[in-house]
Design a protein that fits this description.
zinc ion binding, ATP-binding, Ribosomal Protein S5, domain 2, DNA-binding, 28% helix, damaged DNA binding, alpha/beta, single chain, ATP binding, four-stranded mixed sheet
Length: 455
């Protein structure tokens, strides 16, 4: 008989060692190294298996795709992120912060599917059936074809699938379901791996779409092993500040579509509502122009959205001036401050407290917002407002150049649709100094027009 070989393995990343360690040397997680004593066995060669029928490989041009076409959920913003809808047999993972509205969104998806005469099984492993019923009454999601079960055992969930025979399954959430085939408590990496693998196998064998809810850790990543994101077909992230009503759904991984799209939703007292045209959500236009504000056009997938950037510059009372940002990258703002002081002649910014924020809670990550951020800071520093009909987008280099950005025609068309007639970009100006001068000039022209109208 072969002598047992003692080895230890990390349940999170798979790192192996001959000695036990409290912390994994690969992923640096604590308490994930467990003893996996295996019997050493001689290498055996596998015999080729007989293949017949539908299992025989065939040319890719002969594969029928009618059975895997997208199935619309009835929620256009969610379908936009998924690439047109849910694909039969696919497994979709939706993650997000606690209380952001994941369960509310999926209950709405279940209601829309049940209203279309599709049988839906909603498995709640966190709430009771009565609690889900109360939320469904509040959001208007009561449908006769929507079946609800409160289960935390994987075998019982599989039995529910056999009994109900649904067309769509929603499991809320995968971290609270446990399998008797795996040791440990629910939520541990081994349990999450076993539950996800079993549900994915059921989805592929029965051509049954399954939506999974995933928890997140303190740093915002999906809880559990990284293998979970590799196994599923689509990974969606539900974003939004709990203090505001605006929510975004982004696709981090999508085997059936693009990952550039974003879905906009708004949390209301009656549930979650779509925002098909979010153009006015990120603007705070008043009757009088205010210094320190500038509008840009951000691109989310193929959707152009105008966003207002606000800046405040005041004299610092501390030895180290403060740099506070909200919705923009702090390192990018620090670079733009240096360019403004060196290339645009705005002296004294190094001793000022600078606050930069976006309206509506949206986050700007693309370089096209550089010019709007710089102009908002310059407007606040000079205390001279920019014209309300002006929009700016462009990337700023360290040399002070304003570079063109992608999809400039799409951004310009959206700005013109909303009434922004003055455009400040790389085609209008070539340097940051000229852009600042042009922006301030538009503000003077607007004030002169207002005076002419009064007198």
């Amino acid at each position: 008989m072969a002598r047992p070989v003692s080895s230890f393995r990390c349940t999170d990343c798979g790192w192996t060692t001959l000695k036990w360690a409290g912390r994994c040397a690969e992923c640096h997680e604590w308490g994930t190294v467990v003893d996996t004593t295996e019997k050493a066995s001689a290498a055996r060669s596998l015999k080729p298996a007989a293949i017949s029928g539908a299992g025989v490989a065939r040319p890719i041009t002969h594969v029928d795709t009618t059975a895997v076409s997208h199935w619309p959920t009835g929620i256009a913003e969610f379908d936009r992120v998924l690439g047109g809808g849910i694909v039969p047999g696919s497994v979709i993972l939706l993650s997000g912060e606690p209380g952001v509205g994941k369960s509310t969104l999926l209950l709405e998806v279940a209601s829309k599917a049940a209203a279309a005469k599709s049988r839906v099984l909603y498995v709640s492993a966190e709430e009771s059936v009565s609690q889900v019923r109360l939320r469904a009454e509040r959001t208007g999601a009561l449908q006769p074809e929507l079946f609800i079960a409160a289960e935390t055992d994987l075998a019982t969930i599989l039995g529910q699938i056999d009994a109900v025979k649904p067309n769509l399954v929603i499991v809320d959430s995968v971290q609270t379901v446990a399998s008797s085939n795996s040791d440990g408590l629910a939520g541990q990496p081994s349990q999450v791996r076993e539950v996800a693998s079993t549900l994915i196998r059921v989805a592929k064998d029965r051509n049954l779409p399954i939506l999974l809810v995933g928890h997140v850790t303190k740093d915002g990543s999906i809880a559990g092993p990284r293998l979970l994101e590799h196994l599923v077909d689509v990974v969606c992230q539900f974003e939004g500040d709990r203090q505001t009503a605006l929510r975004f759904v982004r696709a981090l991984k999508n085997r059936f579509g693009s990952t550039d799209e974003v879905g906009c939703f708004e949390m209301t007292g009656d549930g979650i509502a779509e925002v098909p045209d979010p153009s006015g959500l990120f603007l705070s236009r008043g009757a009088v122009a205010v210094s320190g504000t500038c509008v840009t056009v951000a691109l989310e997938g193929r959707r152009a959205m105008p966003v207002e950037v606000q800046a405040l510059v005041i004299k610092s009372q501390a030895p180290n001036p403060r740099r506070v940002t909200n919705g923009v990258d702090s390192s990018r703002v620090a670079m733009l401050l240096a360019v403004l002081e060196r290339r645009a002649g705005l002296e004294g910014l190094g001793g000022m407290d600078v606050y930069v924020s976006t309206v509506g809670g949206i986050r700007l990550t693309e370089p096209a917002a550089d010019l709007a951020i710089a102009l908002a800071i310059a407007s606040a520093c000079k205390d001279l407002p920019i014209a309300q009909n002006a929009v700016a987008f462009g990337e700023i280099s360290l040399a002070g150049e304003v570079r063109p950005v992608s999809a400039a025609k799409l951004r310009a068309a959206e700005a013109a649709r909303l009434g922004f007639s003055t455009r400040i970009d790389a085609s209008a100006t070539g340097s940051i100094g000229a852009a600042v001068a042009l922006a301030i000039k538009t503000g003077f022209s607007a004030r002169e027009a207002e005076l002419d109208a009064v007198f």
